[in-house]
Amino acid sequence: LLLALIIPSLILILVFTLDWLAALLLLLSAPLIPLFMALVGMGAEKLNQQHFQTISRLSGQFLDKVRGLTTLQLFGQTDAAASLLATRSDAYRRITMKTLRIAFLSSAVLEFFASMAIAVIAIYIGFGLLGYITFGPADELTLFSGLLILLLAPEFFQPLRTLSQHYHDRASALGAGAEILSRMNRLGRGSPRGGHDGQRENKPQDSVLLGAVGLCYRQEQPIFSDLSLSFEKGDCIALTGPSGGGKSSLLHLLAGFVVPDEGSISVFGKPPGSFSFGWLGQTGFLVQGSWADNLRLTRPDASDIAIETALTNAGLRPLLESRDAGIHSQVSEDGQGLSGGQARRLSLARIFVADYDLILLDEPTAGLDTDSEVHVIEALHKLAEAGKTLIFSTHHQALLTLANRVLLVSDGELRDA
């Protein structure tokens, strides 16, 4: 902005001393470039917001379809899924072409007005030197002054061109920033407020606090209403109760996957999901690659020894020793080559590698055989002894015994069991 103001002003003053009519032509044409670029830029900002929204939705839908490909095939819905992705891809193509059209339009506007202004000045100087223009200062034009004005004219518009390009980049950044700010605002809604001011003064970094939390997926069926409770750092909390009572929803609130409709949540003095924590759902998450690749998702710099130690803590040492490739044994996204319990334990080993302070587990022993259950329970016992904060939902009696506090979650209400 400073360069676009200072440099054209200095050039304008110099040209004015040489020929006031040429300076007047520059002065009249200068505002046209920022004006029309601003008009084009406003349209570019809206289009960029639509562009980022479209690509984020398309990416999410594509990932969902890939993860659920087996289910889609079982129910004969692959054609419908492919058709939906084709429709979304075409929508993304159209919005991309609109964005490119705006980009080309902005360049055309910039070059058009700059070229037209320089051309008019060149015509004026040329006809003035030839004697065809007799009014104004044209009679006083010399070859030196005319050539100097022509050389300065492109430099007069160059800072305005640069400003216009940055303005267009700003519009693109605002389009992307809208998505980022939306995510940050959703996270900020979970920050502590309301009735926990006193508790926040008493070392909130050592507590998990829920104050008057309300959550409702459907208006007629609230999940939680005015829910308040607290956990201390290092607690081992078991959530039990009937299916559909709200155990998984409470874990999702603590993880930041779901934002409460009302109330506040503070996890160690921070909004949920704003820091790294351990998560183990009912289905282990794996990626195509080696065992080491899967464990390094949470800690890329983990050494081979650290990975082997984590696998041992998760009860996978015998299986590791039976594999020729060791930690470099391959596994697919669907856990091919591993049983369900082994895949779950491989995901659990990822938590040992990362060394999280908070670990959330949703039915960690559900659907496992007896041998896998024992290994998972032993692994959680090691985490509890290490002073980690464990919060898990379960119906397993051994896990309930492991916890130092058991909460019964039923019909949106919590009470000590």
Would you write up a description of this structure?
It is a single chain. This protein is α/β, with parallel strands linked by helices. The protein has a domain at 2-188: ABC transporter type 1, transmembrane domain (ABC transporter transmembrane region fold). It is built from 14 helices and eleven strands. The strands form three sheets. It has a six-stranded mixed sheet, sandwiched between helices. The protein has a three-stranded antiparallel sheet with strand order 2-1-4, with helices on one face. The chain has a two-stranded antiparallel ribbon with strand order 6-7. The protein is elongated, with a radius of gyration of 33 Å.
Compute the average pLDDT.
81
Major beta sheet, strand line-up: 5-8-9-3-10-11
Give the C-level CATH assignment of the domain at 2-188.
Mainly Alpha
What share of the residues does DSSP label as strand, in percent?
5-15%
What name does CATH use for the topology of the domain at 2-188?
ABC transporter transmembrane region fold
The ordered H/E elements are HHHHHHHEEEHEEEHHHEHEHEHEE
Shape: elongated
- N- to C-terminal separation? 66 Å
Total DSSP helices = 14
Counted beta strands: 11
Q: Low-confidence parts lasting 5 or more residues at pLDDT below 50?
A: 190-202
The helix content, as a percent range, equals 55-70%
- The chain-level structural class is alpha/beta
Cα-based radius of gyration, to the nearest Å: 33 Å
Q: What is the CATH architecture assignment of the domain at 2-188?
A: Up-down Bundle
